[in-house]
Amino acid sequence: MNLFDYVRPVSVAEAVAAASEPGAAYLAAGTNLVDLMKVGALRPSRLVDVTRLPGLDRIEMLADGGVRIGAMVRNADLARDQAFATAHPAVAEALLSGASPQLRNTATVGGNLMQRTRCAYFYDTASACNRREPGAGCEALAGENRTHAVLGWSEACIATNPSDFCVPLVAFDAVVEIEGPRGRRDVPLEHFHLLPGTTPARESVLVAGELITGLRLPPEAAGFRAHARYLKLRERTSFAFALVSAAAALRIEGGTIRSARLALGGVAAKPWRARASEALLLGATPNVEAFARAADAALADAMPSGDNAFKIELAKRVIKRAFLLAAAGTPKRMPALPASAFSSDTGVLSHA
Ligand code: SF4
C-alpha cells in the first residue's frame, strides 16, 4: 500500500503552500490522477484537494468581449453554457467529443490541461518509460506505436497529448492563469505544454506548487464563431482519444478568407498550432484547393515515429474536411455526435 497525505485547503494561498512540498500533487476530479495512482504509475506523497477552493467555478463574460473560465468549471457545464457555446462553438464541440458524459460531468477545465499521455507503456510500470522514470528508456520506440506522435517527438519520447479541449483553445490564443509560490503569472496555452526533447518527464511550464486557477479566451476568439469546427478521428465513435483531430476556424468576408486558425490534436506531445497554414489561407478563396495547401503546410515537418506514417495522410484529410465544414458555416445545433466525422451538420447521423 502507498501511503499519502490528503489535505483540503480553503484558499488558493493555502493550496499553493501545501503543494509546494516535494512529492505533492493537486487533486481535482481525479479522473486521470486516481487511475494512474491505482496502477502505480504515479505515487504522490500528498494530495492537495482543490475542488472546494472558492471562486474557481465561474464562467465570466468579460467587458472586452473575452471570457474567463475558472479552473474548477466542469467540462459538461462549460460545453452546455449557452452564452459560451454560442460564442465558442468549436470549443464546445471539442469538449463534448471528449471522454464520456459521466466523465465530462465531473472532470474540470484545469484538470483537462494536466491530463497525462495515454501511451500504454506510461501506464504499465513493468515497461521502460522516460516520461514516468527519467533515463529508463522508451519502450514505445520499438513497440506498439501506431497512435504515437508524428510532429515534435524525440528519441526520448514519442507520446501524444490526449486533450480535445486544448486544441481549439490553442487555436484561439487561450491564456492560462497560474498562481504559485512566487505569485501570479499568465502563460499562453500554446507555450504551456512542452515537447519532450531530452526531458519528457517535464510536461508543462508549471513549477512546484503552481496551480492553474483559470483560462481566458481573448475577444478575437468569438469573431470566428460563424465558421468554426472541431473534427476528431478516433478508433471508435465515442469515449476514445483522437488519432488525429483539428480545430479549424475562418473569418470570411466577401468570399475571401480574412483570418484563419488551425490547431491539431493527437499528433504531438502538445496541441499543435499550425501557423504556416493559417498564413497561407489569408486572402484565399475558401475552397478545397486552398485547404489542401494548408493541410500540406501543416504536416510539412511530420515524420513517423514508428508504425504511424498513416497519421500524416490522415491529418491532412482531417484538416481539409475540418476547413470545408467550417467554411460551410457553424451549424445552428450541435451535431448528434460532436466532432465526429460520422455526424452531419443537422444532427442526423449520416451513416444511420
Ligand atoms: Fe514513455 Fe513517452 Fe516512451 Fe510512451 S512514448 S513509453 S510515454 S517515454
Rg, Cα atoms, Å = 20 Å
Quaternary status: single chain
Instruction: Classify the secondary structure makeup into a structural class.
Output: alpha+beta
Q: What is the 3D shape? A: globular
Tally of extended strands? Answer: 12
Beta-strand content estimate: 15-25%
The CATH homologous superfamily of the domain at 226-332 is termed: CO dehydrogenase flavoprotein, C-terminal domain
**Which ligands does the model contain, each kind named once?**
iron/sulfur cluster
Q: Which regions contain 5 or more consecutive residues with pLDDT less than 50?
A: none
Number of helices: 12
Q: Write down the CATH topology of the domain at 226-332.
A: Enolase-like, domain 1
Question: N-to-C terminal Cα separation, in Å?
Answer: 49 Å
Sheet with most strands: 5 strands, antiparallel
So what's the CATH class of the domain at 226-332?
Alpha Beta
Helicity, as a percent range: 25-40%
Order of helices and strands: EHEHEEEHHHHHHHEEEEEEEHHH
Write the CATH architecture name of the domain at 226-332: 2-Layer Sandwich
Structural features, described:
This protein has 352 residues and is an alpha+beta fold. The chain has a domain at 226-332: Enolase-like, domain 1 (2-Layer Sandwich). The chain has helices at 12-19, 33-38, 75-79, 82-87, 89-97, 101-106, 109-114, 120-123, 166-171, 275-281, 288-298, 310-328; strands at residues 5-7, 24-27, 46-49, 59-61, 67-70, 175-180, 183-188, 211-217, 228-234, 242-253, 256-265, 272-273. The strands form three sheets. It has a five-stranded antiparallel β-sheet with strand order 4-5-8-6-7. Strands 9-10-11-12 form a four-stranded antiparallel β-sheet. A three-stranded parallel β-sheet has the order 1-3-2, covered by helices on one side. The longest helix is centred in the C-terminal third of the chain and has 19 residues, at 310-328. The chain is globular. Bound molecules: iron/sulfur cluster. Iron/sulfur cluster is lined by residues 117, 119, 121-122, 129-131, 138-140, 157-159, 200.
